[in-house]
Design a protein that fits this description.
By secondary structure, the protein is an alpha+beta fold. Helix content is 24%, strand content 13%.
């Protein structure tokens, strides 16, 4: 299955009705069960042989179906993502994984052994590289980091009004552009250091580094008059997402 530009994907539901308030417990423990602790510990081991590109692991989570994404919380989502990565990279076969998971009844993934992780996940989107921003040569960093030094100045400055148009359907793969800001006018409040573009790196299409802006949005402009008054929502956005807003 492929994402549909008219559907809200499981990871991008900000402002969508019907989900109720987000529960918050200031005394919530970092782990609710021992298996969550072990999943956290597995992150480095799994990504040592898979998902080394910026954005790749997050894109795996975006491709999960609703059952895997929502049923077992944050670390259940990670565990399902690990299954997908290990299968897609050929580290372990789907049959071997199903056999191993079936022996561990304390793991939430044991409920899903009837289908392989590859069958439960959306395919990687096929992107048209011509729709991505151009490559920009940058000096190689001295350490591992997503930050880059760009020769050209940022297009926007603090105080500029900007808008993020809806991406073309052919561009919808991994993205850091949340749907709830698409088409809404915001104001640049801060400039961040430039970074590689995960929309490109997650798909192995090069770094294509971008200037990054913190954009402030009035909550009622995003979600209507029922939203909290005088609240500003700050969203970090890559330059290629933005155009100058027409405030006429």
């Amino acid at each position: 299955m492929q994402p549909n530009s008219h559907e809200r994907r499981v990871h991008d539901l900000g402002g969508a009705p019907g989900y109720g308030p987000v529960p918050h417990d200031p005394h919530e423990p970092p782990f609710h069960a021992d298996w969550e602790r072990r999943v956290f510990g597995l992150l480095g081991a799994v990504t040592a042989s898979t998902a080394r590109r910026p954005g790749e692991f997050r894109y795996v989570l975006e491709r999960l179906g609703p059952d895997d994404y929502f049923s077992h919380g944050y670390y259940g989502r990670w565990l399902a993502g690990f299954e997908v990565l290990l299968a897609e990279y050929g580290v372990i076969s789907p049959d071997e994984m199903a056999s191993q998971v079936a022996q561990r009844a304390d793991l939430p993934a044991a409920e899903a052994t009837a289908s392989s992780p590859i069958q439960r996940v959306a395919l990687v989107a096929s992107l048209d590289p011509s729709l991505l921003p151009a490559h920009r040569p940058t000096p190689a960093p001295e350490r591992r980091t997503v930050r880059r030094e760009l020769a050209d100045a940022p297009r926007f400055s603090v105080g500029d009004r900007v808008v993020a148009p809806a991406p073309a359907p052919a561009q919808i793969g991994h993205t850091r552009l949340p749907e709830y800001v698409v088409g809404k006018r915001g104001t640049v409040v801060k400039l961040h250091p430039a970074e590689v573009l995960p929309d490109s790196t997650a798909h192995d299409m090069g770094e294509r580094p971008q200037h990054v802006y913190c954009v402030g949005y009035d909550s009622q402009a995003l979600w209507g008059e029922d939203a909290e008054q005088d609240a500003i929502i700050h969203v970090d956005l890559y330059e290629c997402y933005l155009t100058a807003a027409d405030d006429d």
